[in-house]
Amino acid sequence: MSQAAHVARTTPGPGGDALQPLARWLRRRLFPLLATAGLIVFGMASTTWWGPSLLSKAAWSLPDDLWATLAAAQRLLHGNLGGLYTPPTRLITFPGAALILIPLVAVTDAAGLSLQVQNAHNLHPGVWLLAGPYEIALSAVALFAADAIAERLGADRAKRAVLALASAVALWSVSVRWGHPEDAVAVGLLLYAILVLSKSGTKRAAWLTGAAVAIQPLVLLAVPIVAAVIEPRRLAGFLARAAAPAAVLLGAAAAANWTATIHAVTSQPNWITVDQTTPWVSLAPHTGTGQTVAAGPARLLAILVACGCAVVAGRRWRTARGAPSWSADILAEVLWWTALALALRSVFEPVMVAYYLWPALAVALIPASRSWSRLIPASLAVAVLTLVSQLTLRGPWSWWVPMIAGLGLTLYFARAPRTVAP
Length: 422
Known about the structure:
Blueprint: H1 3-10, H2 16-28, H3 30-48, H4 50-54, H5 64-77, H6 96-99, H7 102-111, H8 128-139, H9 141-153, H10 157-177, H11 181-197, H12 202-215, H13 223-227, H14 232-256, H15 258-267, E1 269-271, E2 276-277, E3 286-287, E4 292-294, H16 296-314, H17 328-348, E5 351-352, H18 358-368, H19 372-388, H20 400-413
Antiparallel strand pairs: 1-4, 2-5, 3-4
């Protein structure tokens, strides 16, 4: 082969230079890409085809909760801020949960698809064929964030492949089974914030954290942990930026309908006759007709305990504050404490649903990816807990105790090496 021919074959053609970064990114994120594609295929097949067949059902097996959030997104799209927290939306999280579904709703509106809830006259809602792949792909931001951090921790490709598989199994509960992409997106953004912060990107980390909070405030449990590793002189700016997105969105919703917004966001009502009660249900204030309890006070208690965890853990992270970048050990330990903080929601929640367990499980898998001795048992624990949590067991102790034990076991397997400050 002549030299000219060799140059012609190895020189990128028109647009080749622009595609090279994309090709490199695709190679680096191959495992979360495959996990996302697999979850979409499995999710759509299990909800529309063999899942209903196994249960001898004519109707598709769909995540009912998603439809209420879609209704809220449709109201946002049409500028109806006052209806964001009124029936049938049942929205109790921050407005960002509806905001991330606006592109989907815009497409369904343009296509003339109805957002009617599944019922006896609507067994196969056509909108699910668009909504399913969209919300699963949206939820997969957590898979990509986990892979990026595992790479930063030095996990090899084999461990990252197992991490992607275990993370996708856990993510099924949030996206396919229950239809809450906002939880996955919020945790994914929080993970990216921690990754950026580990490289001293305080401002970017603050905005990512703020976006996460605006979508699902459950990540507030992790904010004290993150704050514990930030330089004191930068902490005020970080917290101000992290609070801004949620403040703007909530302020707009409250201005449009103060009563509905404040009631939904502060009381956080949950149904005791539908979901799994825990031993804390007897202490939770009952609301309305007595069929719901206010989960808000218990979640404030969880945040207070998370602050205590941050005080304990932060004493060992003095060397990380102000450093150009964190060591892998520090990053792994921050992730483990973040998982512990997120698990506190399940510890103190008066009424639970299976997907409440997912945030702690998803984060705990990442520090475990540094060694096979931690990753394999943690992955098995996550898979078993994800599947067993879907069972319905009545009584405040029968379901909650095994779930908390499973969370504790997962955190034990995923424990990071202790980093001691000089």
